[in-house]
Amino acid sequence: MALQIGAVAPDFEAETTEGKIKFHDWIGNSWVLLFSHPKDFTPVCTTELGTLARLKPEFDKRGVKLMGLSVDPVDRHAKWSEDIKETQGAAPNYPMIGDTDFNVSKLYDMLPASTSGDPLTRTPADNQTVRNVFIIGPDKKIKLVLVYPMTTGRNFQEILRVIDSLQLTATHRVATPADWKQGEDVIIAGSVSNDEAKTIYPQGWKEPKPYIRIVPQPK
């Protein structure tokens, strides 16, 4: 069964470009973006890794750690990193898992449990389902899952927007509407009664329908 929002992110030990890690220990009290790639030296993924390296300060500002994954070995990640820097202007500045035994890919339901063999003999198409984004909270639970095809590069501005929403709604009893961006109005959560809302928002709210109660974004 596929991992669902609210499930505890599976723990694991793995070799990375920054040494061996135990995932839950590495997370600590941070938010995490875990993102995966079918194969090193693939074109779309090259652009994604470089883009994420340039955006790392934005994730740092939000207290989000970055962790990449490919089923190729760590030494190939290091060589790929040189190409990424040359073509994208920035090399990965975050750890990359070398998932050569497919353990993490299987734990996160990206590859079938029966997958085995030499990762270097596999093609990107063999691993095309290893194109996921998982956002994991400090409680080690999965907050979001995105799955992309190999031909569509990921939109990291959207991922930053989602993180802003997740972090806001984790600390305030609100929800964010379609296309919401940081600083825009939000919706009072349905779990908040009108009596509670009057206490939290004494200035009142806009109510186009009784079930849509709009307030400025809490500070």
Structural class: alpha+beta
List the secondary-structure elements in sequence, H or E: EEHEHEHEHEEHEEHEE
Helix fraction? 25-40%
Low-confidence stretches: none
**Range of strand content:** 15-25%
Short description:
The chain is α+β, with helices and mostly antiparallel strands and about 220 residues long. It has helices spanning about 25, 45-60, 75-90, 105, 155-170, 195-200, and strands at about 15, 20, 30-35, 65-70, 95-100, 130-135, 140-145, 175, 185-190, 205-210, 210-215.
List keywords for this structure.
219 residues, alpha+beta, five-stranded mixed β-sheet, four-stranded antiparallel β-sheet, 11 strands
Describe the structure.
- By secondary structure, the chain is α+β, with helices and mostly antiparallel strands.
- The protein has helices at residues 23-27, 43-61, 74-88, 103-107, 156-171, 194-200; strands at 13-16, 19-22, 31-37, 64-70, 96-98, 132-136, 142-147, 174-175, 186-188, 206-209, 212-215.
- Strands 5-4-3-6-7 form a five-stranded mixed beta sheet. A four-stranded antiparallel beta sheet has the order 8-9-11-10, with helices on one face. Strands 1-2 form a two-stranded antiparallel sheet.
- The longest helix has 19 residues, at 43-61.
- The model has no long low-confidence stretch (mean pLDDT 97).
Mind sketching the topology for me?
Blueprint: E1 13-16, E2 19-22, H1 23-27, E3 31-37, H2 43-61, E4 64-70, H3 74-88, E5 96-98, H4 103-107, E6 132-136, E7 142-147, H5 156-171, E8 174-175, E9 186-188, H6 194-200, E10 206-209, E11 212-215
Parallel strand pairs: 3-4, 4-5
Antiparallel strand pairs: 1-2, 3-6, 6-7, 8-9, 9-11, 10-11
